[in-house]
Every structure is written in structure tokens, then in C-alpha cells.
């Protein structure tokens, strides 16, 4: 378990917002009709060597958070500090040097690999972009990385379609790690894989973290996976972070009604734990509820929940919750 006492965060996300404009049938000419509030005032920190799990239902804004942190999607508001620099203020040229330290593993490895280029050249490309090696040295570094992620040197010469889903995910990880990053954002990296392959990839991620001193932001909707790999967990609902705690604390004592409902759906959580069934569907981020965004489905909703946005409070050491019940 990573201890954060007296340590500066490696990555500090402050009040991150990402709104997508909704236009009329004529596009921009028809004017902006509204905004999809995909990420709405999210703050968290990453500390060196830890894994921070971000969990929630589909549509909660997890993947958009990861992409916005890396500036693959430009933010609407907020700040992200890396090495005490707000990376949202960096120019494209300055951002290129930062990208070497901030890498991403995507949910669908096949769509992120060029089908017309051999795997070796795909993994080599970041080395060329950042001028980290050339010629034979580049090739040798790729061979070394392929072996580290459980692949063989001969795979250097093959194309993406010649690999299974699990193998392609290993190749995606190899491409991310080839530049020796500090932080890797894993966006649903095992959701499309069989259960047996999931465990292999998760174990590989943990092994690489130990060997290379990596820091992970691990995005998933799978509670059992996030529990296995994470040191701390943040729970998102409709663009907001509703609870955050160290993994053991969160699973022993989930406080937010949404977190309790998520955990009650996990098989094997205990025979005496009552299944909490949420009513209705997750609201549209185009028109989120006022006050607490969860109040339309919450079994404990009060009048104040419909009006005021709950503040994040520390209920026990490093266990935060945004709920009017507390």
C-alpha cells in the first residue's frame, strides 16, 4: 500500500471539467443547443508508485477524464499539475516533452494499432518521435520490451491482425512503456478480454509497475478488477467524483449510497449483504439533475439533495465522500 503522508503528488488534478457542445442539425451554423457535461469538477491526486482506480457505470465520465488529463481532449476548465507545471498551459511543443512521461493504454488495442504497419515499427515510433534512440538501438530496445511483456522477438515483424486480443493488449502496453514513462493511464485495458486473459494482463501490469516504478491511473467498471490492482479508488457518477478512499477502507465501509449499490452487485460480497437495486436509468449528462446528481436514484434522498451540491468531506483518514447524509 502506498502511503501519501508528507509526499508531493506526482499528478494533481484540480476541478477538471470537460463539456461537449451539442449543435443543431446544421452543425455550428445552427448554433449550440446545449452542453454534455461529461466531467464536472473532478479533483484527485496520483502519488508515485501507486495505482489509483477510477470506477463507475458506463457514461460516468471515467474515460473522458483520462483522455482530458492527457490533453488528448482539451479541457473546458480546471488544472492538471505535473512536476508542478499546469500542463493545460503548455504549448504543443512543450507538451511533446511531457507526453513522454504520460502514456496511455487504450480499451481496444486493435483500433489503436495501425493495421498496415508491422508491430515492431509501431512500438519503435515513440522512440523516433522523442529522439530517444536510432537505428539498431531502437530495434534492440523493442526486442527487449517485447520480451518484458511476454512476447517474442519474432513478433516484431508481424501485423496487428495476426495477434489475439490479449496479445494486442500486451503490445499496446509495450508501446506505452518503451519511452520509460512515469504515469500510465489504463483505459478499460481488460474489459474486452476473457477472464483468464484478464488475470494475465493484470499480473503483467503489476509486474511492470514493480520493475519500472510506474504510477497507474486505472479506469474500469469492473469492481473485482479494480480491487485487485488498486491502492486507492475513486468512484464516479455522472461526471462527478462521489467517494474516494484507500482500497481496503472503501470495501470494508462504502459510505456513498451509489458506492454501496455498486458493491452490493458484486458476487461473493457476503450472504448477509442486501442487494441494492437502483431505480431508473443514469440521467443524461446533457441535462444533469440539480443538487446532488445521484438524488434521482438514491434511496436516501432528502430535500437538500435536490438543491445543494454536497461537499467532499473526510469521514476517516483518507476516506472522502460527497453526500448530504454525512
From TrEMBL:
Q: Tell me which CDD domains the record gives.
A: ABC_NikE_OppD_transporters (cd03257)
Q: Where is the ABC transporter domain?
A: 11-263
The alphabetized list of GO BP terms reads: peptide transport; transmembrane transport
Pfam families cross-referenced by the UniProt entry: ABC_tran (PF00005), oligo_HPY (PF08352)
The answer to whether the entry has keyword Calcium is no
- Record bears the keyword Transport: yes
Q: Which Gene3D superfamilies match?
A: P-loop containing nucleotide triphosphate hydrolases
Which GO molecular function annotations are given, in alphabetical order?
A: ATP binding; ATP hydrolysis activity
UniProt keyword terms in alphabetical order = ATP-binding, Nucleotide-binding, Transport
User: Which superkingdom, per the lineage?
Assistant: Bacteria
Q: Which NCBIfam families match?
A: oligo_HPY, PRK11308.1
Annotated family: Belongs to the ABC transporter superfamily.
- Descriptive protein name: Peptide/nickel transport system ATP-binding protein/oligopeptide transport system ATP-binding protein
